[in-house]
Structures are given as structure tokens and as C-alpha cells.
Design brief:
disordered N terminus, about 700 residues, 19 strands, globular, about 10% strand, five-stranded mixed beta sheet, Trna Endonuclease, Chain: A, domain 1, alpha/beta
Length: about 700
């Protein structure tokens, strides 16, 4: 559940971090929120980097009566709570040193821990926190010895020296109670955002046993041994999370299972029997050698593909012991180990899936070796003039970058652009995009879709394909609903997949961020005289005045709506293409992708500065269509403004299929009645469809 990424990069300057931090908060807000709120965006960013934002497990609680818990993650009987403190972004601008935080956030997270663990006290908390406390108490009482709770204190700067001292004291005290408290500072966030490539060959460590001749079972290219557990503590201290780089699951769950492993290793009697109780550790490597004189096995290019929980439990248990007990640990704690000399990524992926059964596997990984997923990946890498990497399992591209010599068809240079971006897309992202493109945008706006878990949904995306009949009906009938009868057996054309993905990226690039939208709206307010700035350019209008202006500013509200309906805009793009050209097949998609309008954008991995203009030059399609759809959305917004503003949440309004149908109707109507418009995305005298090449 929690992610402890520790690969080191060069020490950054805070001024450099603050710019990237602001951009990261913008991205988090655009992904998870309806309007920009830097503090809520920080919650999501921290969860994304160090826990999870999976809605099945992640809950935001920040607000009144949150009990010191800004968000929590619950997976099975395991809990992570977080207290996060984000500086105001305006205050970070121009700072050369990180802002500091006193011990206030420390008090908040420690009081939250006490509140959750107190079975008798009464607290004034929100309903979400009350439910969290009830669930935690129930699970803890069900297994009193299990270590179910961990906590994160995240700050966008550093602690003061006195606060740092207090944190270490509180951390040590909680550790004795079986609770892990982690501090995340701006440097940790920087490291997580700059997770660097890893040279697998550099992962070398030793395993020892008492007698290699008696305790090792040897075969060709693999062996079994009974190793000393402390060797894995030493290995983790040396390499940290790099040990698990080839594993599809790079995060650790602070689970009840993990707590029991730790408990076993902390007691002398059960520690001696640990190798009987535990399933052991599975390692793949480039090579291994035996040194019978020293009873050592030396591994090179090693990766732990099963046993992540065991290794972390060994580390936690060892560090919790007093020095004399640590000496006993090093002598008595043993663990079963299997070592396989094999670097084939497919084989390692199969090992990971089939042997990791203690915690749920990401659904897409269970499909990653299917015929259709391998076929799609092969088709993407053979697209010309520039190939794309289709990532069919977690961490695949990064792993291939780190061990490209073992993948015959993979070369980093095939996917790198001039600005060191990579032409790659993930199957889980493509699933959402394609599902929207073919007419399910309301469902993707709603979320919670099991793209890889639900067999019917998976088939509609990866095992059923559109045809000419589908697209002609799609482009002419605003009420068109996808059904089994409209899809043929087979995988959709890879060029059509890529066109949908590129259009989605273009929509992202053309949609103002929440922060940019607000800043530009305020500038319009200043120009109109509705808002004021002083001689130094500082805004002097009150927050109430700004909010009142924004609530009535049409362009600002329109951009908010566009930011919340990107999936719907994508479906409307498909509607326009189908209405104008009919079948969106591989031939049409390839013609658009390789056109002068899109070639640079596609080749640059959809770099925002390469996005095409919305102006119509007689040959453009994608840019002018955005201008047209923005106009259609504006007309829809003005016609339905009261209904939109009356909705409790804009996304809840947008995920109604009847709303999407009304937007589709509007697009088809507007396209035919604006012939006399003379705008940059369409010349006078032509309907919009007539203006497209």
C-alpha cells in the first residue's frame, strides 16, 4: 500500500523543485478535482506518490473535524493515515530555501493515531473519521498482535530543528508500539517525481549459510538454500527498493500478514523456526557463484520477484531489537531461498504473477501475457514512421530501460524524442480513452470501471472491434448506444487506438489548467475594472470579491466545465470524425496521424509545445475540430447554465448519459447551421463538416 521510493538523484535546488511542485499540483488537481485547491491537490499528490489513489481504498477526509487525518488508505485490515501540510503556492515563488514547519503537524498526526487507537474516548469527528475509527478498532480487536496502522506526515518543506527532534522522538515511541510513522519532505517528493532508471547489473549482494555443501540443493541455472535472514537486511540497506525493480508490484502493504511475520521474528523461540513458518524468497539474477570456503553465494544483477513482504518484515523486526537480540537474530534467523539464473522479462513476469498470491495483483497484470495484449504491443512497436511503446504491465517500460539487453526488440532510442520524452502509453490509460471514444464517455466520467476485471468491458475494448456500420450509425444517430451487435470479433486497429490516444493528449494540452484558468480570469477582471491591483501589481481585491467575479465570469466557468468533461469531448471528436468521414478505420486514422498537422505532435510524444493550431488552413482536422467543439460546449453551457450550476457536483451532472446525448445532438445541429460564421477554425460560406478536408 505505501510506497517508499528511495532511489537517489542529485540534490536539487528548492527553486527548481517549487516550479515542478506547482506543475505536479496542477496535474493532480486536473486529474482528481473539479476546481483547483492546492491543499486538496497536495493530498492526492502525496497519496499518488507514497500510498494509492485507488478509490476502492483511498478516502479524503481533510476538512472540519477530520481528527488530524487528511486522507486514509484502507486495504483489507491494513490502514495508512496521513496528515499533509502544503505551503501556499504564491508564497513559494522565488524562494531559494525550503519553508519550514513547526511541530504543529506532528501533534496533529500523533493525536490522530491516539484517537484511532483509543477504544473508549469520545471525539468530535466527521462521519468518515468515525467510520474509520470503528473499522480500525474492529480489525485490531480481531487480531491484537497484528500491526495494522502506519502513518505519513507530509510537508512541502522541512521541519524546524526542534520539530525534527520531536518527530524522531515520536517516531521511536510509536515504533515500540508497532506503528510506523514516516516523514515526507520536499526532498522525498522530488526524489519520487524523479524516479531514475536503474542499472540492474549493479544490484549485487551475498547470501550466507552455515555449510554450502549440506544446505544448498543445486541444479542447472537454479538452486535452493537456507540463508541467514540478516543478509536481506544488509541487502536492503545497500540497495533499498532497487531490489524489487523488476517486480510488477513496487509498493509494500503494511498488512496483517506482514505484522505476523514481524512478530514471529521478534521472539527468540519462533525466530529459530522462521524458515518453517515462512514460504521463503524467490530471486532471479544474471549470475550467481558459490564460495564454499566462506559459505557464501554471490549474486549479480539480482531481483527479488517474490518475498517483498518477508524482506521488509526482516528489516523491521531486526531494527526493533536491542543489540544483544540483534546478535541472536543474526545467528538463528534463517529463510528459505530459491535463486534462478534468468533475465527474461516474460519469464520474470510469469513468476511474479504466479507466486505472489498473498496480496491482490493489479488486474491489468493478470491480462498482460494474453494473446491480444502481446499482439497490441507488437503492433504499436511496428507503427511507422515512429514506433510507440505499449506498456501492458506495471513498470514494464522502466524495467526495459534498465535491462534492455535482455529484450531483443527493445531499444531506448526507438521511443525517445528530442526532448527526452518517450512515445509510450499504458494499456490501462488506453482502455479508458478507447472506451470513451466509442461511446462510453459518461461511464468513464463516472469512474469505477473494471476495465480489466469485467470480462464484458475488457472484451469491448480489446477483443471486439468497430466497423463501417458501427461508425456510420455512431456519426448520424445522436442517441446511438453501443451493443454487442455493433462490434465484431477482433482487436481494434492499432492506428485507431493511437488516434484516440493522441486526440486525448491534444484535449489535455488545449484545456487550461485550473490555476492558469483562474489567473487568466482574474486578469480579465482587472482589465474590465471589476478587480484591482496596486502599483506593484499585487491583487488588492478581497477573496470574496474575486470569488464573486469568478462565479459570474463566463469564460472561467466554461473552462471549468471543459476541464471536467475531457472524456465527453473525446467522444464528441469521434462523433465529428464519423459524421464527416464515416469509418474510422486504420487507413483514415493513419492518414490523420501522419498528416502535416499532427506529424510533429505524434513524433514528439504529444509534447504540448508541438500541438497544432485550431486555425483551418484547408488541410487541418484535429485543431479546427477543437475550436468547433469548444464553441458547441459554450453554446450548451449558456443554454443550460441554470441546470449545470444547480447540480451538486459538475462531474455528477456530466456522467448522465442524457447529458452526453444532448451534447451530441447539439454538435450535429450546430455543424450544419453556421455556414455564415467566419472564425479561425472555419471559413465563411461552408458548414463545419464542409470545411474539413
Amino acid at each position: 500500500m505505501s510506497k517508499e521510493v528511495s532511489i537517489r538523484t542529485s540534490e536539487p535546488a528548492f527553486s527548481q523543485f517549487s516550479v515542478e511542485f506547482s506543475e505536479s499540483l496542477q496535474r493532480a488537481a486536473e486529474t482528481y478535482l473539479e476546481e483547483f485547491n492546492e491543499h486538496q491537490a497536495f493530498n492526492y499528490l502525496v497519496a499518488e506518490l507514497f500510498a494509492t489513489t485507488n478509490p476502492e481504498h483511498f478516502t479524503v477526509t481533510d476538512g472540519a473535524n477530520d481528527g488530524g487525518v487528511d486522507f486514509f488508505v484502507k486495504e483489507g485490515p491494513s490502514y495508512i493515515i496521513c496528515q499533509s501540510k502544503c505551503s501556499n503556492l504564491d508564497s513559494l515563488s522565488g524562494l531559494s530555501a525550503a519553508p519550514t514547519f513547526d511541530d504543529t503537524p506532528i501533534d496533529e498526526i500523533t493525536s490522530a493515531i491516539r484517537m484511532l487507537r483509543d477504544s473508549e474516548g469520545k471525539y468530535r469527528t466527521s462521519s468518515k473519521i468515525k467510520m474509520l475509527r470503528t473499522d480500525y478498532q474492529r480489525d485490531q480487536q480481531g487480531d491484537p498482535e497484528a500491526k495494522l496502522l502506519s502513518a505519513i506526515l507530509a510537508i512541502s518543506g522541512e521541519l524546524t530543528p526542534s520539530a525534527s527532534k520531536k518527530f524522531l522522538s515520536e517516531q521511536a515511541s510509536l515504533k515500540r508500539q508497532g506503528i510506523h510513522l514516516r516523514l515526507v519532505t520536499w526532498k522525498d517528493i522530488y526524489q519520487a517525481l524523479h524516479f531514475q532508471e536503474l542499472d540492474i547489473e549493479s544490484i549485487k549482494f551475498e547470501l550466507t549459510c552455515d555449510d554450502l555443501k549440506r544446505e544448498v540443493l543445486r541444479f542447472d541455472n537454479y538452486c535452493y538454500l537456507l540463508a541467514h535472514a540478516h543478509d536481506f537486511y544488509d541487502a536492503f540497506r545497500a540497495h533499498e527498493w532497487n531490489l524489487f525493480d523488476m517486480n510488477v508490484r513496487l509498493q509494500i502493504t503494511n498488512s496483517a500478514v506482514n505484522g505476523k511475520i514481524v512478530g514471529t521474528l521478534q521472539k527468540e523461540k519462533s525466530r529459530k523456526r522462521f524458515h518453517h513458518y515462512n514460504n521463503g524468497i524467490l530471486i532471479t539474477c544474471n549470475s550467481y557463484k558459490f564460495d564454499e570456503r566462506e559459505n557464501v553465494v554471490r549474486l549479480s544483477g539480482a531481483q527479488i520477484v517474490n518475498g517483498c513482504q518477508t524482506v521488509r518484515a526482516i528489516c523491521e523486526a531486526y531494527e526493533s531489537l536491542e543489540p544483544n537480540e540483534q546478535d541472536s537474530f543474526r545467528k538463528t534467523a534463517r529463510v528459505q531461498v530459491k535463486i534462478i539464473k534468468n533475465t527474461d522479462p516474460d519469464f520474470i513476469n510469469e513468476l511474479t504473477i504466479t507466486t505472489n498470491d498473498q496480496n491482490p495483483m493489479s488486474p491489468r497484470n493478470l491480462k498482460s501475457n494474453s494473446t491480444e495484449q502481446k499482439g497490441i504491443q507488437n503492433a504499436f512497436r511496428n507503427i511507422r514512421p515512429v514506433p510507440w511503446f505499449y506498456e501492458r504491465k506495471d513498470g514494464e517500460f522502466r524495467s526495459y530501460l534498465a535491462a534492455s539487453t535482455s529484450v531483443q526488440w527493445f531499444r531506448k532510442s526507438d521511443y525517445a524524442t528530442a526532448k527526452n520524452r518517450f512515445r509510450k502509453l499504458e494499456n490501462k490509460e488506453l482502455a479508458r480513452i478507447w472506451y470513451s471514444f466509442i461511446g462510453y464517455s459518461d461511464k468513464t466520467e463516472h469512474g469505477g470501471i473494471g476495465y480489466f476485471e469485467d470480462q464484458e468491458t475488457y472484451a469491448q475494448i480489446f477483443k471486439r472491434t468497430t466497423n463501417e456500420k458501427f461508425w456510420r450509425e455512431f456519426g448520424s444517430n445522436s442517441h446511438f448506444t453501443v451493443g454487442e451487435d455493433w462490434l465484431e470479433i477482433g482487436t481494434p486497429p492499432v492506428h485507431s487506438y493511437l488516434l484516440a490516444y493522441v486526440i486525448s493528449e491534444y484535449i489535455d494540452a488545449m484545456t487550461p489548467s485550473f490555476r492558469q484558468n483562474k489567473e487568466e480570469a482574474i486578469e480579465r477582471g482587472v482589465e474590465q475594472g471589476a478587480l484591482k491591483r496596486d502599483n506593484q501589481g499585487r491583487l488588492t481585491s478581497s477573496e470574496e470579491e474575486v470569488n464573486r467575479f469568478l462565479s459570474d465570469e463566463g469564460e472561467y466557468r466554461l473552462n471549468i466545465m471543459l476541464a471536467n468533461m475531457k472524456e465527453i469531448t473525446l467522444e464528441l471528436y469521434a462523433l465529428v470524425l464519423a459524421a464527416r468521414y464515416g469509418n474510422i478505420d486504420a487507413q483514415l486514422a493513419n492518414r490523420i496521424l501522419t498528416s502535416p498537422e499532427l506529424a510533429d505532435f505524434v513524433g514528439s510524444a504529444c509534447a504540448p509545445d508541438k500541438r497544432p493550431s485550431i486555425e483551418q488552413n484547408g488541410k487541418a482536422i484535429i485543431g479546427p475540430t477543437y475550436g468547433f467543439l469548444r464553441y458547441c460546449t459554450q453554446q450548451y453551457f449558456y443554454a443550460n447554465q441554470a441546470e449545470i450550476q444547480a447540480a451538486a457536483r459538475m462531474k455528477a451532472y456530466l456522467w448522465q448519459r442524457k447529458v452526453v446525448i444532448k451534447m451530441r445532438e447539439n454538435v450535429l445541429k450546430v455543424a450544419g447551421r453556421i455556414a455564415e460564421f467566419d472564425v479561425n477554425w472555419k471559413p465563411r460560406g461552408k458548414t463545419f463538416f464542409e470545411s474539413l478536408p
